[in-house]
Amino acid sequence: MSLEVFEKLEAKVQQAIDTITLLQMEIEELKEKNNNLSQEVHSAQQNREDLERENHHLREQQQGWQDRLQALLGRMEEV
């Protein structure tokens, strides 16, 4: 009888070890996914900042062209 109890206990311990091992592997996978997503977020933020700078630059250029065009139109009206 005591041998059966030990066998059941051994089976439960082995099952617990297997579960712990699987959970540890899952944790490692999730950590890796988290790191990858963090890198993607950082890259997306960098791209957004780059696009905002480019947008600002283009808006300044557009304003410059509009100013020049207004000046030219003003000269044409004088003539």
Strands, helices and their partners?
Elements: H1 2-78
Protein described:
The protein has one domain (1-79). Helix content is 97%, strand content 0%. The chain has one helix at 2-78.
Question: Main β-sheet, in a few words?
Answer: none
Distance between the termini: 115 Å
Rounded mean pLDDT is 96
Q: How large, in whole angstroms, is the Cα Rg?
A: 34 Å
Percent range for helical residues? over 70%
* Tally of strands: 0
**Shape, per Cα inertia axes:** rod-shaped
Please tell me the total number of domains. 1
Strand content: under 5%
Unreliable stretches = none
Count of helical segments? 1
Main structural class = mainly alpha
Helix-strand sequence:
H
Keywords: Cell cycle, Cell division, Coiled coil, Cytoplasm, Septation
Protein name: Cell division protein ZapB
Subcellular location: Cytoplasm
Family: Belongs to the ZapB family.
